Amino acid sequence: MGVSTLYMESPIGVLELKAEEEWLVSLRFASEVKPAPVTEQPLLLEAKRQLEEYFKGIRDEFTLPLKIEGTEFQREVWKALREIPYGSTCSYVDVAKRIERPKAVRAIGQANKANKFPIIIPCHRVIGKNNSLTGYAGKQVDKKEILLSLEQPK
Questions:
Q1: What is the chain's Cα-based Rg?
Q2: Residue 37, pLDDT score
Q3: Shared-domain flag, residues 144 and 92
Q4: What integer is the mean pLDDT of 1-17?
Q5: Half-sphere exposure of 113 toward its Cβ, with a 13 Å CA cutoff?
Q6: Which residue in 4, 37, 78, 108 has the most C-beta neighbors within 10 A?
Q7: What pTM does this model have?
Q8: Is 24 in a helix, a strand, or coil?
Q9: Is residue 138 situated within a structural domain?
């Protein structure tokens, strides 16, 4: 079976989800909803449900099988990102220390950029050491700001 696609509206714009039979392959920000065949792919429907719960503030963790492909370093970074608690932030320096590579701050940023599962692997929780909202999905810091505000207690 090939790759299935689902588009969904969200508070940060249109999301494009792609899945193979047993794995979520990617989540990315799309510029617009594109016509896609109606999918009954169970994993895509479950991913959509979990994301909708997240955006409603009733889910703080995802339980989806992700097809994670990257270098050993990227995988270390992404694992560290998943350990940042919901509603919390840490700096690129903190992540570098957490993976015991204190000089890899710029490389942490590049690993975040290569993350195929934003929101699910929460790279939006990594901020500048001066608490600034630095880079997200290119220059879409507004998305980072929305995601972080969604995670704050009401």
A1: 15
A2: 65
A3: yes
A4: 90
A5: 11
A6: 108
A7: 0.89
A8: strand
A9: yes
**Count of helices and strands (H, E) across the chain:** 5, 5
3-state secondary structure 48-90: HHHHHHHHCCCCCCCCCCECCCCCHHHHHHHHHHHCCCCCCCE
Amino acid at 17: L
Same domain, 83 and 47: no
Distances (CA, A) of 64 to 7, 23, 31, 132, 143: 17, 8, 24, 30, 22
Give residue 132's domain range: 72-150
Give the Å distances, CA to CA, from 102 to 4, 7, 36, 96, 124. Answer: 39, 38, 44, 5, 20
Is 90 annotated in the active site?
Answer: no
Same domain, 85 and 133: yes
Inside any domain, residue 65: no
Write down the catalytic residue from 119, 123, 148, 150: 123
Query: How many domains does the structure of the chain reveal?
Result: 2
